[in-house]
Specification:
The protein is of the alpha+beta class. The chain contains 18 helices and 35 strands. Strands 25, 27, 29, 31, 34 and 35 form a 6-stranded mixed beta sheet that branches. A hairpin with a 5-residue loop joins strand 7 and strand 8.
Length: 809
């Protein structure tokens, strides 16, 4: 009876809308990141001090954050506490520990009140402190040894109509290089500082500092002398301007750049990886540019760009850095090297792989590291490896999971399902004695590039980077992607975590290998952020200082990128793997045929164009933008999102625009159709034709004339048409028929590729052949006979009968 009465009351109250009954415990629901999907409160980590613990750090850890009521009801008695789990024991734990349930964070601090009540939409900032080590009064994290520790910030509250419950949490890593001294314990004795591990040799550390951006140039615009370039939008002006993403990345580097009175230090471990598409676009901006009024309308109205001054200032600062630090060129526009290999177009491949170093060096006035490729995907297939080696690359930098030992699956704690590329056995080129981080892929072997010294090794070496630190670095900053090489078991939406938490995770990942020596792992690390990195100045400086801090504590030593890729061989057989997720994130296969087709048309036209000394515009400068547009269509930029519809749309639009522009180029060279019927003065009169070239460069052409049987038209061979002009031609012609003849005429390149629209000439000749000759001869003979007869009669004095009726006057 009591239960029935309760259900009746509940139903009545629900209908009236006066109350909502909740379960007795209002726990947040877990989401893909292993944190929580908050229903009532949202907890955000704002700062951690110290971010990395050393022997000289404050013995108290201070964590600041913000609690926001995101629900539709009041939450009372809001409180937070800090919890700690066991230190990370394996590299994969840098990721998987962030998904542990809160019960695994066994060391707990006390709850500290944040607010008595938070109304919907209200937020409250807070700061909590806890001792790092036990021994003093009050709670502590109980740290005893260096390591990387997962911490959890837990917020509890009591929603209206509910009970006290955990409503959200925030997880992050705390790297501990050493422990400061603690206060007195129960006996009054103070704890001594705990230094870093003394038995660990410094980790040779190399850091790649990428500078890249999504493609910005409007497609379908050929090279010109005076024309202003067009950009899809003006976001790049913001990015290189004060406070922009690219400006802040450069500013962070400037904080460690070598200079007067400053030691090289951490700068010796940094190599700037530069996208040639980015710096060439920024350089074009310095001379003035236009921006589409609507990015979705490439042929629409434009407006003046606003970033010329910012672009010049940013380039000048980058030039100064490039002159004092290692630089390496990235593949053009973050092109998908595996898709590029599938396209198999020499011109496109050369522009994507061979030209980047020259472009970067010419713009920045430096000499970049040659022969090393950094594919954006971190994983390539066998044809891509052969393509790299064929273009002079001796080394490719790939994810550690992109190679496997003895054909086995990649050695990660979270195994991947991947189909290894079938490769022949061979020799590994390695780095460290304990475990190689550079391998030779023996089947990626081709003939050494033209001009290579005798004895050049035809095999491609592979330098690997650690995927766990790379995944953590990718999460730093704005718009963080999850890289293709991150194992599926530990993929989650990192945007649920605050930027401060993601920075802490990266600091922990950088420090982990230094704090955990093992004979199974090399004492070396290559730190690889994503190419389109979103770290700001403060985050970049924090990461650079982390490397510096490890160096000062004798846990790391700076190592140059050139030194890394020149490691000595280590004989272990390895094979190359193309990771399934990399294949999923790749440029779609449907783009390969049209890119190949248009690339071939560019090559065909390039072979016909001629460079003239008096012409400012060269064929190379004229057609290179079209090649670059096709490469941008194969870019991996923005392809890590779950929905790559927008990336596909931009790629298809670029291909369509290039196709349309090439159609215009080919149709710009043609024969002008003569009006009416063309009458030859005789059977051997020349045929007069006029050809027009609307291209701004000279071109070699041939006439294709389908001569009827009654004509004999001489082939005049290759002819040169001037840029933006016309030229008349006399075609030797012999016609043996007086009827009107239609002669089809068209232009081709010397290789026989059709140019322009074909036309036809209607010809009538004053030609009567042999009959005309006989009639003419007979008439001449008759004329001579009649004239002779008349003269003879006159000599005889006999009047000519034709003169009868006329009297002599």
């Amino acid at each position: 009876m009591t239960g029935g009465l309760f259900r009746l009351i509940t139903a009545v109250l629900t209908i009236l809308g006066s109350v909502t009954l909740l379960p007795s415990v209002a726990h947040a629901q877990p989401n893909g990141s292993g944190t929580s999907t908050p229903k009532f409160l949202k907890l955000t980590l704002d700062a951690v001090a110290p971010g990395t613990v050393t022997t000289s750090s404050d013995p108290m850890l201070t964590v600041s954050g913000t609690v926001t009521n995101i629900g539709d009801r009041v939450v009372d008695d809001v409180s937070v506490r800090i919890q700690r789990a066991a230190p990370v024991q394996s590299p994969s734990g840098l990721r998987s520990s962030l998904r542990l349930d809160q019960v695994n964070y066994e060391v707990t601090g006390p709850f500290q009140d944040v607010a008595e009540r938070l109304s919907p939409g209200q937020r409250k900032q807070f700061s909590v402190r806890i001792a790092l080590r036990a021994g003093g009064e009050g709670a502590s994290l109980g740290l005893t040894d260096p390591g990387v520790y997962p911490l959890l910030l837990n917020v509890n509250g009591e929603p209206a109509y509910g009970t006290q419950a955990r409503l959200d949490d925030a997880r992050f890593l705390l790297p501990v290089l050493g422990l400061p001294g603690a206060g007195g314990d129960a006996t009054g004795a103070a704890s001594e500082p705990v230094p870093p591990p003394a038995d660990a040799s410094p980790v040779a550390t190399t850091l790649i500092w990428p500078l890249a951006d999504r493609p910005r140039m409007v497609a379908g615009k050929p090279g010109s002398v005076n024309g202003q370039p067009e950009l899809l939008d003006d976001e790049l002006a913001v990015s290189v301007g004060k406070g922009g993403r690219l400006e802040q990345l450069v500013s962070a580097l400037e904080s460690v750049a070598p200079g007067p009175g400053r030691e090289r230090g951490v700068a010796g471990s940094v190599c700037i990886a530069i996208d040639p598409d980015l710096v060439s676009t920024v350089q074009t901006m310095t001379h003035g540019y236009r921006v589409l009024a609507s990015p979705s309308d490439p042929g629409g109205a434009t407006r003046e760009g606003t970033g010329a001054a910012s672009a010049q200032a940013w380039l000048d600062r980058l030039r100064a850095l490039a002159g004092s630090m290692c630089t390496v060129a990235l593949p053009f526009a973050q092109v998908d090297v595996s898709a590029l290999a599938a396209v198999d177009d020499p011109g496109l491949s050369a522009r994507a792989l061979t030209a980047p170093a020259d472009v970067v060096d010419a713009i920045l006035g430096t000499r970049s590291l040659r022969g090393v490729s950094l594919p954006d995907s971190g994983s390539i297939d066998d044809p891509a490896g052969q393509l790299l080696r064929g273009h002079g690359y001796g080394t490719a930098v790939l994810a550690s999971t992109a190679v496997s030992s003895d054909g086995a699956a990649s050695a990660t704690e979270n195994a991947l399902t991947s189909a290894p590329v079938t490769l022949e056995p061979g020799v590994v080129v390695g780095g460290e004695q304990a475990a190689p981080d550079v391998v030779r892929v023996p089947t990626v072997s081709v003939e050494p590039p033209a001009g290579a010294p005798a004895g050049t090794d035809p095999a491609l070496r592979v330098t690997t980077f650690d995927i766990w630190s790379a995944t953590a670095l990718a999460a730093v900053g704005s718009n963080p992607p999850t890289p293709s090489f991150t194992p599926s078991k530990v993929r989650f939406d990192v945007t649920n975590d605050s930027r401060a938490a993601r920075l802490q995770d990266a600091l922990g990942a950088i420090a982990w290998s230094a704090l955990n020596p093992s004979p199974e792992r090399p004492r070396s690390q290559l730190l690889m952020p994503p190419q389109q990195w979103g770290a700001n100045r403060e985050e970049g400086i924090a990461l650079l200082k982390q490397v510096e801090l490890l160096t000062r504590n004798n846990l790391a030593s700076p190592r140059g990128f050139a030194e890394l890729v020149a490691q000595a061989p280590d004989p272990h057989p390895y094979t190359l793997e193309y990771l399934p997720r990399a294949a999923q994130d790749a440029a779609p296969e449907r783009f390969v045929p049209p890119v190949h087709a248009q690339g071939a048309r560019i090559t065909e036209l390039m072979r016909a164009l001629v460079e003239l000394p008096e012409s400012e515009l060269t064929p190379h400068a004229f057609l290179t933008p079209a090649r670059e547009d096709l490469l941008r269509a194969l870019s991996l930029s923005d392809r890590r999102a779950d929905d790559d519809t927008l990336a596909d749309l931009h790629a298809q639009r670029r291909i369509d625009q290039v196709t349309k522009e090439l159609d215009t180029m080919f149709s710009s060279v043609s024969v002008l159709p003569p009006g009416g019927v063309y009458t030859l003065a005789s059977e051997q009169s020349p045929l007069l034709l006029v050809a027009r070239n609307e291209l701004p460069v000279a071109i070699r052409v041939q006439f294709r004339i389908e001569a009827p049987a009654e004509t004999n038209i001489t082939d005049i061979g290759e002819q040169l048409l001037p840029p933006s002009g016309t030229r008349s031609f006399q075609i030797p012609t012999e016609v043996s028929d007086s009827r009107k003849l239609v002669i089809p005429i068209s232009l081709t390149t010397p290789d026989g590729v059709a140019l322009g629209e074909p036309t036809s000439v209607s010809v009538r000749s004053n030609a009567y052949g042999q009959a005309l000759a006989i009639i003419t001869a007979c008439a001449g003979i008759l004329l001579l006979l009649l004239a002779g007869r008349r003269l003879l009669r006159r000599f005889r004095g006999q009047p000519d009968p034709a003169d009868e009726g006329f009297e002599r006057q």
